[in-house]
Amino acid sequence: MKFAVKAWSNGRARVGTLQLGSIEIETPSLLLSTQKGLPHFISPDLLSSLPSPNSRLLQFSPLHFLDGISPKTISKIGGINQMLGLHDHEFVAIARDSLQCLPSHDGSNKFGPSFETPCGRRLIKPVEYMEIISSMKPSIWVTLADEVPAWVSDKRNASSVDRTVKWLDECIALRQVGEVFGAVVGGSNEQLRQHCAKEVAIRDVSGYWIGGFGLGESMDERPTLLNDNLPKEKPRLTSGLDLPEEVLQGVATGIDLFDSKYIHHITVGGFALTFPLDGIESKISTFQPGDIGSEQVKINLRATVYRKDTTPLVDGCSCYTCKNHTKAYINHLLNVHEMLAQTLLELHNTQHYLGFFHLIRESIKAGKFERFCQRFIADRRDLLVSAAHAGVSQSPLPKQEADYMTLL
Amino acid sequence: MALRFEVLGRFNRARAAQLTLPHFVCQTPLFMPVGTQGTIKGLTNDQLEEIGCQIILGNTYHLALRPTSELIDELGGLHKFMKWPRAMLTDSGGFQMVSLLHLADITEKGVTFQSPVDGKPMLLTPEESIQIQNRIGADIIMALDDVVKTTITGPRIEEAMYRTLRWIDRCISAHKRPNEQNLFGIVQGGLDPVLRDICVRGLVERNLPGYAIGGLAGGEDKDSFWRVVAQCTAALPEDKPRYVMGVGYPLDIVVCSALGADMYDCVYPTRTARFGTALVPEGVLKLKHQVMARDTRPIDPACGCMVCKNFSRAYIHCLVTKDAMGSQLLSYHNLYYMMKLSRDLHSSIVYGKFPEFVCTFLQKMFPEGEVPEWVCNAMEVAGIDISSCCSPVSSSYGLNLDEKAHAV
Ligand SMILES: [Zn+2]
Ligand SMILES: [Zn+2]
Prior knowledge:
The structure holds two protein chains of two kinds.
Chain A: E1 2-9, E2 13-20, E3 23-27, E4 29-31, E5 34-35, E6 38-39, H1 44-47, E7 57-60, H2 71-77, H3 80-84, E8 90-93, E9 102-103, E10 114-117, E11 120-123, H4 126-136, E12 140-142, H5 154-173, E13 179-184, H6 190-201, E14 207-210, H7 222-226, E15 236-239, H8 244-252, E16 257-259, H9 262-268, E17 271-273, E18 298-300, H10 320-324, H11 327-335, H12 340-365, H13 369-389, H14 402-407
Chain B: E1 4-11, E2 14-20, E3 25-28, E4 30-33, H1 45-51, E5 55-58, H2 60-65, H3 69-74, H4 78-82, E6 87-90, H5 94-100, E7 105-106, E8 111-114, E9 121-124, H6 126-136, E10 140-142, H7 155-174, E11 182-187, H8 193-205, E12 210-213, H9 222-235, E13 242-244, H10 250-258, E14 263-266, H11 268-274, E15 277-280, E16 283-286, H12 306-310, H13 313-319, H14 324-350, H15 354-365, H16 373-382
Parallel strand pairs in B: 4-14, 5-6, 6-10, 10-11, 11-12, 12-13, 13-14
Antiparallel strand pairs in B: 1-2, 2-3, 7-8, 8-9, 15-16
Helix pairs in contact in B: 6-7, 7-8, 8-9, 9-16, 11-14, 13-14, 14-15
The complex binds zinc ion (2 copies).
C-alpha cells in the first residue's frame, strides 16, 4: 500500500492517492458497503458497470461469516477475493458494521469487544478475529476496538481506550496478511481520543480507523473529536459518518476513507439520490416549489407522482439504471415488492454518491473546499425547507431525514 | 399470423426449430422463465440476455392489477415499460384467478372472481382477456380457457373442453392485433383421449398461429401426463409451435421434447431457488444442507454461468435464505441451467445426436440406471432407444427429484 497527500484545502481537507493491490484511487473516497462481501443487491457481474476505480474498494465485516463458513474453508477457497470472484477489487475488513454487527459496549470485557450479530451477541477475542482475518486475506484490516456510546462515564471511556490499545498490540502480534489500520477510540472525550491517537501513532500501522462515531454523539461535537493530531502521512478511515453533511464534516478534518451505510438506507427506503452533481453553482434557480417529489435531494420512487413518469432517475446520469429504466418502472417494481427495484436503485445511488466524492476531491484540488461545503449544505437545507413548504413531509434538518430515521 | 416456424432438424417426433416472433428469433425447444410482474427475481435484462432467455412470460392477472394494462398501454406496451428487447408471452389470466382466488366461478360469460383490491365481484370474459393482452402487447397471447384440475373427473371435464372451444371463437374475434401478436389456442380435455381429440381438431380447424397443451402439470400421474402430451403433439400441425403449459422439471422437458413439443414455462427454477435448491445434471442440490458449508466446489463444476464461475457451494450456503442475494444468485444459475438444457436439446436434434443427448442426460440423473418406467414408456413411443442407460429391472419408479438431493 502506498498513500500520498496531493493537495490540501481549508486547513485539513486533503486529496490523496491510495495505491492498494491492483487499484490506485484518489481520496477522499467511499468504501462500498457490503453484506458478506457483496453490495447488498448488486451481483458481481453488475459491479463492473460502476465507475472504476473508485467503486473497487469494498468494506466487509468478517463477523458476517461467523456461523456460515469456517476460516478453514475460507482458507481453502483462498480468501475473500477468491470467495467472491472479485479479483479486481480490494477489501477492507472492519468488524463493526452499523447494520448487523453493532458494538455492544456492555457485553465487552478485557478479553475482547462484543457485538450484536444476527447470530446473537458475540464476544470476539483478538486471536479469533485474527484467525478469520488470516483466512480472508483482506487488503486492509482494522484492529478490534471497544466502541462505546457518547454518554458513558469517563471511567468506562478510559477503559475502552486501554483495551483498544491492548487489542491493537495483540492483533499486530498475530498479523500475517494485509495492511493494519489501528483503531482510535475515546468516545466523546477529547483528551482520551488524543491519548489513544498518540498510542496508536507510535505503533506499526499503515493507517488509522477513527471509531466511535454514529453512537449518539452530536454533530456539533464531531469536529473537535475528529481533531486527533494523528500523523498526516497515513490514511484515515472512519465508520458511522453516513449522510453527505457528515461526510463533509469528516473530510474537513482530514478523513480519507468512509465506510458509510447511507446508500443502503436510501435504497431500502425506495429513494434515489438526485442532488445536483454538475458543479456547485446551478440548482436552486431550477427548483420548482410545488413540484413534489423532485425536491432534488433525493426522490421517493414510491410516490404516485412517478406512476407514469418515463424519465430516468436523473437526466444525463450514465448509470446502468438511468440508461435503461424509467421512474415509472421502478415505481411499479416497488409497488409489487420486486427485488429488482433495490438492485436498480443501489446501482444508481452508488454511482451518484461516488460522483459526490468526486466533487469533493475536485473542490479540494481547486482549493475551494470550504466554499463547496457551505454551498452544498446551504443548498440542501434550502431544498429540504422548500420541499417541506411545498407539502413534502420532510424535516429541514438533514439528520432528521425521514427515511434515515425510520430505517435506523 | 405474426410468426414464422421453420423446422431445422428432426429426430422421429422431436424437432428443433427457429421461431421468428415480432421481437426475437427463437430457437426451440425452449424454456420460458416466468416474470410474473414484469421482472424476474432481481435479475436485470442484461443478465437475462446473458443467461440466454429468449421469451419471458408475464402474468396478465398480476399485470392487470398492477400497474394495470391501461398504464402499460399508455407507456407503450410491456416491452417498452420493462425495456425487454426480446420476445414475451402473456397468459390469459384465467388460470391465475382459478388457482389464486377461492371464490372464482366459471360461467358461459367468463370467469367471475372477487377483486383482491376491493372485494367486489369482477368478470373476466374471453373478450376482456384478449383486450388486456392486446394492451400489454406480448408476442404471444393465450386464449382464455375453462381451466379444471386434471385430477377432476366426470362431466365437468367435458363441459370445460367444449366451453374452451366456444371461447376460442370469442377470443379470435376480440383479437385486435393479429399482425403483431400471435393468439395461441389451448387444448383441454383432461386425461380423456376422446375429449382431447375433439379439442385438438376443433382448434386446428381455426388455423391458429400456435397451440398449447393445457390442463397438465397439476398433480396427475406421470404416465397420464406423457400420454396426453404424446396424443396432442401427434395430432397438432407440423408447421406450428406446440407449447406445454406449466411444465418445468428438466426431465419432463426432455421427455416432452422427445414427443415433439417445443415450448415450456414454469416457476419451478426460480421458486426452488428461493428455497435454496440448485438444479444440477444429477438432479437437485440443496444448498441449505450443513455439508455445503465445507464444500468448496462450484454448484455445478460443469456449468459455465456467472455464479458457478465465481462462487463456491460454501459461500452460497452462507447466503441462502438469509440474504436476498442468495436467491438471486441461485435463480441466475437455475435459469442458466434451463437455458443450457434448451440449447442442448436444440443442437442435439439439429446435429442428429438427440438419442445420445437423452442417454447422457438420463445417465447423469439416474446413475444406477433407475430410469422411471413412465420415461421408458414415453421414450419408446418417441422412438428413442435408452436401453443403454436403464438397469435391467427398473425398480425405483416414483423416486422424485427432491428425494434425489442426497445422492448428489
Ligand atoms: Zn443513474
Ligand atoms: Zn451455474
